[in-house]
Amino acid sequence: MPPLARRLAVLAAATLTLFSGQAFAEPVKIRIGWSTMPGHMIPVLYSKPEILKHYGKSYTVEPILFRGSSPQITAMAAGEIDMAAFSALTLVLAVTNARQDVKVVADIIQDGVGDHHSETFMVRSDSGINTVADMKGKRVGSNAIGSASDTAIRAMFKKNNMNDKRDYTVVEVAFPNIPPMLDEGKIDMGTVLQPQSGQFIESGKYKVLFRAKDAVGPSQLVFLTARTDFLEKNRDALKDFFEDHVRAMRWFQDPANRTEAVKIIADFMKQTPDKLTHLFTNKDYYRDPFMFPNIKTLQDSINVTQEVGLIPAKIEVAPKYVDLSFVEEAKRRIEAGR
Predict the structure, then answer these.
(1) Structural domains of the chain, ranges and CATH numbers in brackets
(2) Which Pfam families does this chain map to (predicted)?
(3) Is the model's pTM score more than 0.70?
């Protein structure tokens, strides 16, 4: 082969190899833990391909269901998930007990912000329970020890000089099973999520004993946490992921898309849209428009977990356990119109 032809062949082969590597690189699979719908939204955020610029190209998502935030610590430690829906307590336990190197990267839901929804802890109207003090000797339904709602329960009971095991009994019950167990008298109080909490109040058979904000004030209820090694290894792909993640959440929260957004969620939950009228109103949780977590209220919640005795010592979440660079980049791209 003539020298020029040989050089051109080598150049063509190198170019093809480079192009092929870029075009056919496997998308990064992101395994994300979640536990409640429609609160966490994670299972439906990727259901509108036309609003996702990078899905299937640089990343894909596998949502993985858990009963609460606490079980996700073990899954994270075992490398079974890359991101988790954590509460304040589970973040502390992941760092101090499981010795995990993790970062808070995005908002999921915030409780009691302004006039937005705050988690409801309900009793039967005919139970004779009118104050927290009336719960002495009673049974409390909690979705998972150490979850955000569990921490609020313990904080409110502690304010009333009541302690677990001595003054009341905690029964771990998955969120969907709390309403029937209340109805059957198997527990005396439980966390009832929207939309059922609104339906229960309207029925007259149940009443709110207190709300999470009464116990802990406004809080960063649940947030997205990721393994630091996963963030560093896949930083470019994750910038694309977070751009799509934020775009999708903004699409769902846009009033112009509300009818379709509610139907997508209703179909996933196997409910009718008329049962989810609270979504994306002030009867729903607060979600930051660019998914920035509120680090101050998160720290406040961590302080509360120590006060109620769930952890021996608190951690300072910022700056060591926070990485907002991904949502910052997502905001920059979206505002730039990319």
Answers:
(1) 23-114+219-335 (3.40.190.10), 120-216 (3.40.190.10)
(2) NMT1_2
(3) yes
